[in-house]
Design goal:
Layout (H helix, E strand, L loop, with lengths): L2 H20 L3 H18 L7 E3 L11 H9 L3 E7 L5 E6 L6 E4 L2 E3 L11 E4 L3 E2 L5 E2 L5 H11 L5 E5 L20 E4 L2 E4 L5
Parallel strand pairs: 1-2, 1-6, 6-9, 9-10
Antiparallel strand pairs: 2-3, 4-5, 7-8, 10-11
Helix pairs in contact: 2-3
Length: 197
């Protein structure tokens, strides 16, 4: 598929899936934020004191904060992304109860003087995903570049997309810079990405 056609195709999938996500009822959203805690705990064992990157939800994203609170209670270090410029995000350490500021793209996080860390595990927001672990984000490419930068430092965090089942599609064509997820965490379970789909 030609690169322009691929971008158009991704944009169409993004629009369709986000419409479906926006339509999900509030009761399902609340239940999903709780059920992902159970599915994560049943499927992922974290080394002690791991650094976990989460995110402050925007728009109709699934809310990872209850899971993040649980991980903090287990002694994990939390961090969230902050946008530095049109190309770059950094991960700032945070604890619940900290004062937060706007950190770009509608998200919240610690201020610029917070400790910058490299995550061991990344909880990643997305627009759409497939069984192979391919994801469509919001088109800015921040996570792809941040993961590539970590790989250049010989750091290979576990990548976990966090989404509703309604965001799953049959197939997402990927570009060379796209980084596949290791897992997708939804309200119905933890899916180990399978390259065969």
């Amino acid at each position: 598929m030609h690169i322009d056609d691929l971008k158009t195709h991704k944009a169409e999938i993004r629009k369709s899936v986000l419409q479906a996500r926006n339509a999900l009822p509030e009761a399902l959203r609340h239940a999903a934020a709780q059920s992902v805690i159970r599915h994560f705990s049943n499927g992922i064992t974290l080394p002690a004191k791991s650094c976990v990157s989460g995110f402050w939800p925007i728009r109709s994203e699934i809310d990872p904060r209850p899971l993040m609170r649980e991980l903090e209670a287990q002694g994990m270090t939390l961090c969230v992304p902050a946008i530095l410029d049109a190309q770059t995000i950094e991960f700032r350490a945070m604890s619940f109860g900290d004062a937060l500021v706007e950190t770009g793209f509608g998200t919240m996080g610690p201020p610029a003087d917070a400790l910058v860390v490299d995550p061991d595990i990344m909880l990643i927001p997305l627009a759409a995903f497939d069984r192979a672990g391919n994801r469509i984000g919001y088109g800015a490419g921040y996570y792809d570049r941040a993961i590539a930068a970590l790989h250049q430092k010989n750091k290979h965090p576990v990548l976990i997309g966090v989404a509703f089942d309604a965001q799953r599609v049959d197939h997402i064509a990927h570009e060379p810079h796209d980084v596949a997820l290791d897992y997708i965490l939804t309200e119905t379970g933890l899916i180990a990405a399978s390259p065969q789909g």
